[in-house]
TrEMBL record:
Protein's name in the database: ATP-dependent 6-phosphofructokinase
Origin organism lineage: Eukaryota, Viridiplantae, Streptophyta, Embryophyta, Tracheophyta
Function, in words: Catalyzes the phosphorylation of D-fructose 6-phosphate to fructose 1,6-bisphosphate by ATP, the first committing step of glycolysis.
Keywords: Allosteric enzyme, ATP-binding, Cytoplasm, Glycolysis, Kinase, Magnesium, Metal-binding, Nucleotide-binding, Transferase
Short name of any one Pfam family annotated for the protein: PFK
Assembly and oligomerization: Homotetramer.
Pathway involvement of the protein, from the record: Carbohydrate degradation; glycolysis; D-glyceraldehyde 3-phosphate and glycerone phosphate from D-glucose: step 3/4
Chain intervals for the UniProt region annotation (Disordered): 1-64, 524-553
Gene designation: PFK
Domain named Phosphofructokinase: residues: 156-459
Binding-site positions, Mg(2+): D251
Length: 553
């Protein structure tokens, strides 16, 4: 639990002549990291409001980037709460209303349904006896007081980026949560991603219209990459009278939602902007996992099983399966562990080489001589540097992601060429189930997970929180600032026990030199230091980044 908020005598913030008029951008300053550690804020959601806190800001080329306001609360024993914005931060005189859930018969059996305002969730669950308590996030769930009356709520839902199992379940549960728990009747679906806001493509969503969509793959709203025009989007939100925006998408989409939040705040609109992180690759940091990941791993088993059948049924048979994972190899990693039929797993985080002692070709040759067959799983982002030596880059997609060269076809060709040179007959079958996996409905586990995410984000928006994304951290749902899930990507650690378990299962070589191992260990230590309590926002390191600057070393 968080330390109790400090009591304040005043009920409203005093006028400050140095602050600009309403609607005008506020001055931006670059604070010291020490200022953040000792800057005490109070929770004004469920307690009497006191003196307004000053959001701490930093400059990136003089422009807002969706993560300008950082709210930190420090406490005893190294406790740090990374809080999320609230509509009352910039609209201090808003009225509150009793939560309709207190009169909902479905929830009357719950002993303590409303979340304590001081409840927080720790990011690092394993701590040492004398170590700091570390970073925390505000616990998700319904509050006793809400900042939106059901009759005034006009919500919208948008899905962006690639497909993922569970998208329709999240849409369904946001609609049903708003309707069944809070009595909201005006809910719009924005079609075709961010472009749908200003192209005026919308559909009305009701519990009846979304009743069975969770049984279908994809998204009933459609999706697209790119198309983010902040001014047009916020103009549309303002013109339509929308006051709750639910954005479902990956790190780029969440970054765009952060920019929308900043523009909404600049205009002084009573609008809650909330995100639900979506990535089938499970590459969003902080959270335990992303929805759809379990389904993807389960479905990947079908492709691996097929490859295994093909391999054992032929002389020197090789089954090669390419799975999703642009920069993070979690699907390949977990599918390999679950299968136990895989002899080699190649992921982006672990460089490999083909020729020479300890290389992939020698390992394949040895495995075929010992077992007569072999199954290889490769993530789509693996080996890109090796491929780039022989092929040219093919550009970027509409979201700005580098288009990857097909490692599966390339590796198939290289393996065939090697064994042809060595006059050894092989029978290689290549399977790419990418679009089959991402287009299926979510399984039972992911359906439950999507439901909890959707209900939790609805509770947060109704309580007035904004500029946040919902996520599960150490098994508990919490509200996370946008900047925390967009500042880096979650990647497989090749120096931890889970990767060691995979190496033990496949008996493959590590392909690692000492330099790669040391670099991986340093990255893991740096991440651990961030979790141990020092604010992880890149802008708190005392460095100022321009909009086109590279990473600061």
């Amino acid at each position: 639990m968080a330390p109790p908020p400090a009591s304040r005598a005043a009920d409203s913030p005093p006028a400050d002549p140095s602050r600009p008029a309403a609607g005008a951008p506020e001055p931006i300053t670059v604070p010291s990291p020490r200022d953040h550690l000792h800057h005490h804020l109070i929770d004004r959601r469920d307690t009497p409001r006191g003196r307004a806190w000053e959001p701490e800001r930093s400059r990136r080329g003089g422009a807002m980037d969706g993560a300008a306001a950082v709210k930190l609360v420090s406490g005893e024993a190294g406790y740090v709460l990374e809080d999320v914005p609230h509509v009352s931060d910039y609209l201090p005189d808003l009225p509150t209303y009793p939560n309709p859930l207190q009169d909902n018969p479905a929830y009357s059996v719950v002993k303590q349904y409303f979340v304590n305002p001081d409840d927080t969730v720790c990011q690092k669950i394993v701590v040492h006896k004398d170590g700091p308590r570390g970073n925390h996030f505000r616990r998700a769930g319904p509050r006793q007081r809400v900042y939106f009356e059901p009759d005034e709520v006009h919500a919208c839902i948008v899905t962006c980026g690639g497909l993922c199992p569970g998208l329709n379940t999240v849409i369904r549960e946001i609609v049903c949560g708003l309707s069944d728990m809070y009595g909201v009747t005006k809910i719009l679906g924005i079609q075709g991603g961010y472009r749908g806001f200003y192209a005026r493509n919308t559909i009305t969503l009701t519990p009846k219209s979304v009743n069975d969509i969770h049984k279908r793959g994809g998204t009933i709203l459609g999706s697209s990459r790119g198309g983010h025009d902040t001014m047009k989007i916020v103009d549309s939100i303002q013109d339509r009278g929308i006051n709750q925006v639910y954005v479902i998408g990956g790190d780029g989409t969440q970054r765009g939602a952060g920019v929308i939040f900043e523009e909404v705040k600049r205009r002084g609109l009573k609008v809650s902007v909330a995100g639900i992180p979506k990535t089938i690759d499970n590459d969003i940091p902080v959270i335990d996992k992303s929805f759809g990941f379990d389904t993807a791993v389960e479905e990947a088993q079908r492709a691996i099983n097929a490859a295994h059948v093909e391999a054992v049924s032929a002389e020197n048979g090789i089954g090669l399966v390419k799975l999703m994972g642009r920069h993070s190899g979690f699907i390949a990693h977990y599918a390999t562990l679950a299968s136990r039929d895989v002899d080699c797993c190649l992921i982006p985080e672990s460089p490999f080489y083909l020729e020479g002692e300890g290389g992939l070709f020698r390992y394949i040759e040895k495995r075929l001589k010992d077992n007569g067959h072999m199954v290889i799983v490769v993530a789509e982002g693996a080996g890109q540097k090796l491929i780039a030596e022989t092929m040219q880059s093919i550009g970027k997609d509409a979201s700005g992601n580098e288009l990857l060269l097909d490692v599966g076809l390339w590796l198939s060709q290289k393996i065939n060429e090697y064994f042809k040179r060595n006059k050894m007959t092989i029978n290689l079958k290549y399977i790419d189930p990418t679009y089959m996996i991402r287009a299926i409905p979510s399984n039972a586990s992911d359906n439950v997970y999507c439901t909890l995410l959707a209900h939790s984000v609805v509770h947060g928006a109704m309580a007035g929180y904004t500029g946040f994304t919902i996520g599960q951290v150490n098994g508990r749902h919490c509200y996370i600032p946008f900047y925390r899930i967009t500042e880096k990507q979650n990647r497989v650690s090749i120096t931890d026990r889970m990767w060691a378990r995979l190496l033990s299962s496949t008996n493959q070589p590590s392909f690692l030199c000492n330099k790669v191992v040391e670099e991986a260990k340093k990255e893991q230590e740096r991440t651990a230091q961030l979790i141990d309590g020092s604010p992880s926002h890149r802008k708190l390191d005392g460095k100022v980044e321009g909009p086109n600057s590279g990473d600061t070393k």
